[in-house]
Specification:
Length: 217
């Protein structure tokens, strides 16, 4: 069983939502790197970062899928690679959250330079495992309609990221950091499980384990 056929369009959206950004983690992350900017400048930087992220995700997905074919990389092998990267990054994120509670972070340096729009776009929005997910979905989109739908879902998630960046300050002011931190913890644990599920899918595709493991059988 291959990853593409396991996912309906709603599941594809959830996968992209979790791996690109995700939008509910972006406000705090974006505010941290733009706290020294005026609100208008921060919004302009968000728009430029969005443009870079959208171009990188759509172009990267198409180029990556083409290179997969040229290099004869199978879908199961790419699925396994995506799962490994996703697992390592997810685990590091969860451990970093734990370490932050044990060792309070140092106050940010107000003189620290603000990252460029491209550095915000990659990897804050276009994560390595998010790009791997896009490449896999594009590679398995044998019909033009399916490929365009995947592209539309990528655009939708990036628009949510844009809103999260442009309105990061109001979001943090009205919602506060605690709900967002709670969400980060929940998603961090779930993404570890999702990464393991992707790894299992790759192993099934390679014929190393039985498909019943994926289906819960």
């Amino acid at each position: 069983m291959e990853l593409h056929y396991m996912l309906g369009l709603s599941d594809v959206f959830v996968l992209l939502f979790v791996t690109l950004g995700p939008p509910l983690k972006v406000p705090a992350a974006y505010f941290d790197v733009t706290r020294t900017l005026e609100p208008r400048a921060a919004k302009q930087l968000a728009t430029r970062a969005f443009a870079f992220a959208l171009a990188a995700s759509l172009l990267g997905g198409a180029v990556g899928a083409a290179l997969m074919s040229k290099w004869h990389i199978s879908i199961p092998a790419m699925t396994l690679a995506a799962g490994v990267v996703f697992f390592l990054v997810s685990l590091r994120g969860v451990l970093a959250e734990y370490d932050a509670h044990m060792h309070p972070p140092v106050a940010p340096d107000p003189a620290a330079p603000v990252p460029s729009a491209f550095r915000i776009a990659v990897p804050m929005l276009v994560t390595p495992y998010g790009m791997a997910a896009i490449i896999l979905l594009v590679a398995r989109s044998r019909q033009m309609e399916r490929g365009l739908t995947v592209g539309a879902l990528v655009i939708a998630v990036m628009l949510l990221n844009l809103l999260a960046m442009r309105y990061a300050r109001p979001i943090l002011r009205f919602i506060g950091t605690i709900p967002l931190q709670l969400f980060t913890t929940i998603v961090g644990v779930l993404t570890i499980g999702l990464s393991l599920q992707i790894l299992i899918s790759g192993l099934v595709g390679l014929g190393l384990i039985d498909a019943g493991v994926v289906n819960g059988g």
